[in-house]
Amino acid sequence: MKSFPSRGIGIAALAIAMAACSADPADTPAVALEPAPAEQQLADVCPATVVVQLQWAPETDSGPIFGLLGPGYQVDADNNKITGPLVTGGKDTGVDLEIRAGGPAIGFQTVPSQMYVDSDITLGLAHSEQAIAAAGQQPIVAVTTLLRNSPQMLMWDPQTNPDWQGIADIGKSGKPIVVSKGQLYPNWLVARGLVGQEQIDASYDNSPSRFVSDPSFAQQGFANAEPFTYEHEVRAWNKPVAYQLLKDVGYEGYARTVNVRADKLTELRPCLSKLVPMIQQATAEFMADPAPVDAIVVDVVERNPKLNPYSAELATYGSRALIDGGLIGNDTDGVLGSFDEARVQRIIDEFGPILREGGADVPAGLTAKDLVTKEFLDTDISVTG
């Protein structure tokens, strides 16, 4: 196997980050790049611009995608996108990469729906349950994943609720669980008997003000963000929060899966055969040294006044939380960016009935092979340590 250590220095990626941060977007000059070898040239098999739709604003949980962004990139704040050469190992593949922000930037639409509204989108990032919910009307197929496990969590104030040790204790308390509208996992928590339906409060607006003023309830969060921001960046709080990851109570959903529209899989097959291993490679490089990607993400957010601030300290914390927390890495087959199809089927079996009850058109007999494919993975790419 090609084995990449989980610590190290990505010199080429560092050079990319430094070049990218060197100028204002309006002044950023084109950078002459060494061409990638013929087997990594994408111009004849991929769209001239590979468009990637993020789930949210740029953050390091989408780090490997930013690892493919070469120097001289441009930030278009008006349209919430970043465009530059698509590189692998610091070399030009002959096509451009366009990364689009999600969440507020697309009116909080789901990524699958956005992919079917805008046919220019090549790849979209999603959670497993979103793909299940979309399978009837807007089917997507995951070709790799950036994260092995989800960083989603529930958090609480350990001083206000000192008896809470985890999500089960929150459920027993009967206190509210504040989540944002459209989240699918709260119904899974209810179906599992971990919390009561009456506890779910889907009014979270991503502001810390409610929690700060009344920390009696539990709130959604991500392990690569809120634990740091609440302790170090929310000045009205400035103390630790307690939390438990959903994965620690049995949630198996994949996060940040990289998807294509199901009806475009055949058309994109030649492109994906070359591009997916590049994403795997970028993931390995991110794990070895996330600092170059951290710098790029901080830079592109800083250049876009529409986005919430994303500090260098938060980027560093977030990347380390993903890497050190085991949320990114090889799957059960030992391949980076791969899928465990039995796990995917369990996700379908659990979420399918819940989503149907909520009105989603989940096809009967939906299987893992409908949602994921390992066809394009380079099985020699793995990480150690």
From TrEMBL:
Keywords: Signal. PROSITE patterns: PROKAR_LIPOPROTEIN. Residues 1-22 form the signal peptide. It comes from the Bacteria. InterPro entries: NMT1/THI5. PANTHER family: 4-AMINO-5-HYDROXYMETHYL-2-METHYLPYRIMIDINE PHOSPHATE SYNTHASE THI11-RELATED, THIAMINE BIOSYNTHESIS PROTEIN HI_0357-RELATED. This is Nitrate ABC transporter substrate-binding protein. It comes from Nocardia rhizosphaerae.
